[in-house]
Design brief:
single chain, eight-stranded mixed beta sheet, five-stranded mixed beta sheet, 29% helix, alpha+beta, 779 residues
Length: 779
Amino acid sequence: MDKSTFEDRKVIISGPMHGSLRHDSAHKHVTGTADYIDDIPEPAGLLHGALGLSERAHAEILSIDLSAVAAHPGVVWVFTGKDVPGVNDVSSNGSHDEPLLAETLVQFHGQPIFAVIAETRDAARRAAQLAKIDYRDLPHWSDIDGALANGSPLVITPMTLHRGEPDTEMTNAAMRLKGQMRIGGQEHFYLEGHIAVAIPGEDDEVTVWSSTQHPSEIQHIVGHVLDIPSNAVTVNVRRMGGGFGGKETQGNQFAALAAIAAKKLGRAIKFRPDRDEDMSATGKRHDFLVDYELGFDAEGRIHAVDATYAARCGFSSDLSGPVTDRALFHADSSYFYPHVHLTSKPLKTHTVSNTAFRGFGGPQGMLGAERFIEEIAYAVGKDPLDVRKLNFYGQPGSGRTLTPYHQEVEDNIITRIVEELEETAEYRARRNAIIAFNRDSRYIRKGIALTPVKFGISFTMTAFNQAGALVHVYQDGSIHLNHGGTEMGQGLYTKVAQVLADSFQVDIDRVKITATTTAKVPNTSATAASSGSDLNGMAAYDAARQIKERLVAFAAEKWEVGPADVVFLPNRVRVGEIEISFPDFIKQAYFARVQLSAAGFYKTPKIHWDRKAGRGTPFYYFAYGASCTEVSIDTLTGEYLIDRTDILHDVGRSLNPAIDMGQVEGAFVQGLGWLTTEELWWDDEGRLRTHAPSTYKIPLASDRPKIFNVRLAEWSENTEATIGRSKAVGEPPLMLAISVLEALSMAVASVANYKVCPRLDAPATPERVLMAVERMKRV
């Protein structure tokens, strides 16, 4: 699309785009009137489903006795994998390695083996506990160490990124070091768990309401298990109570089970697992173990990096391939590696198959890179921020713009972002004050860190970078909007409605936002990869453009003026010397038989990727940011407080600053949880023990920084022709929380007078901080 298309937007100040409009459902969230799937009035005859879960981590199924389950009062049907009409598989990538219901082999504790359909949810859940299953146990491992020790297979072909001569340059480097970092996983812990309702139709038709980020994926999977074409399956999503990536593929099994039962019994079916079952049976963020070797000079300038990224992927591939790929794509963080060799190791473990989570591997890769910088800073005795700035990517022509995957960084603003935050957060003065405080404090130690973010925007699977939208303008001038993106609280619906209102220059309340449905916009990509607004906003803009072109042609002919004399103004249209209200103008166009509906489409330009070669341009552009955090730790207990955080984040020219601020703040707190309090733990039998709020600790409101200053870089504007020159905001700000871990690390390092890198792993729970303090005392 021509860049000049968007330059004109700078002078259009009356439209709602770039304005801080409230989230379209904000008042409904506050008052409790927003309808989620469990709030929809239940159809007559609705039945409820429950899962029968494995009690072994890895075992052969010798026999299954479900007679007591079927005999329980209220039970209507019990079914197993053998009852699946089509293919008993819900894998999202065509690998056929993820059975809907395990038949002869279970590969993680909590894997679904059968499903119960009953008159009530309580009856279904109680009946599911009555199964008698005989197993023959097999060897199992639930973590990366166990997978490595047992020569575990990989769930997918690994990827390697290579540039330069890392072996030679590592040998020639003035200084070298080796290390290892453990990075924990994370549970999505949405407010609304997984849920699906299936309603049978005539012939082979079925309609599914699913809490999913990927309606077309649900459509495909339901058709797959029922052995019916996609045109028989309609999937609807109005909103989710949180997604964070966990509803990209993990809703497949619940929708498929509901659809199978609905078609078998001819009644509506609802599956809503409780929190324990949800957490046990659905995937999480991948754990990583990063082994690295660094070559650098006495100034701290990186010469060579060699690193391996092993990941706990679970029993099947799911999205582990692209997740571990994206970890490698972000293993450079904001830094130029002259010579580099990076390899992924997606390991099979006997745990639930891990999946997408906000950042999609990028946070793990970026966290490893910040550890590299920290290691080097302690080795050369410098402030880590100075080492960071020394290694930043340069501007075009500097010879320091090529990523490990051979994409040029052409839009680099990281130095400006970091230096502006360094000044406004008074980083230097505060760091000096903290060092002085630590010198005199016996038990409480402080730390401060300023870390950058550079995050690539686009799906690395090129085909996913497309979107459609359907726009109708009705006779009264009201507008109907539907697109392929899903709303999970992030404000996508509001932003795309703003784009449409701006295009027609009408008030936002003229635009009706409707539920995402596969019946209106087909073959949609998941709302993921931070691309929802980029893709769907442009698709809606394209639909509006088509309608406006017809309207301009109609007006030019009717009033005998040139097309340039037809101008859309706020809630009216100027045609030559006259002005007509928008509703009147539309009504006249209708009577002139002008088509007032259009299907818009958009595909991201410029991107391409060759995974086998490890080369290409997987990202359309980069989003940047920086965060400065100050912490205090108690060296006697390992407990800590986050005293202050300052953030400056780049969203380009924001489509909605209020929503974007909320996204930055929320992402930071979610990243804070990942790096501090949220710890997944499996016991020796492979059972997930952190499966409820009682054992899994997400951040509370009291865990946010006591002083929390967040700003958007208002001077930034995307150099690429994105919608309104905006930038994605979903995933990038999560990695701002890395500053918290780095600040905790500095506080721990003070115990040994900053002589060595504490190598503080994530999550930095109080126990882990205390153990790091004790290590420092022995230095």
